[in-house]
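mind reviewing this stuff:

——
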Amino acid sequence: MKFLGIDYGKKRVGLALSHEKESLALPEKVLVNDRNLVEKIRQICREKGVEAIVLGESLNFEGGQNPLMEDILDIKNKLELDLNIPIYLEPEFLTTKQASSIQKEDELTDARAAAIILQSFLDKRKQ
């Protein structure tokens, strides 16, 4: 099964793809968050044969939802209706900062953050 990982942000949205054997998540690209976001994600899912999506769940230090979570749930609902594939939430905490510490911040930082989210999901799935 092929998964698409998403690190959702108000300005940029990082994407990562899993290897077909569900063992490895690799950064794919970063999209500008605009009114065409759902269409762009739909196109990538079709081109890459994505069968499920893993969306970063943004939580605060106490484990409650961040203000961004409302937007994340909104995009989740839109994608579920549009794509008709499973969409999972995977808790993410400071993944962009973690991605920046792995490699200096650049145009793929958000995609690396998406790969961290997706890899966490894949690792849990193996157990």
Q: What stands out?
A: Helices lie at 37-48, 69-83, 95-102, 109-126. The first strand starts at residue 3 and ends at 7. Residues 90 and 124 are 10 Å apart (CA to CA). The chain has a mean pLDDT of 88.
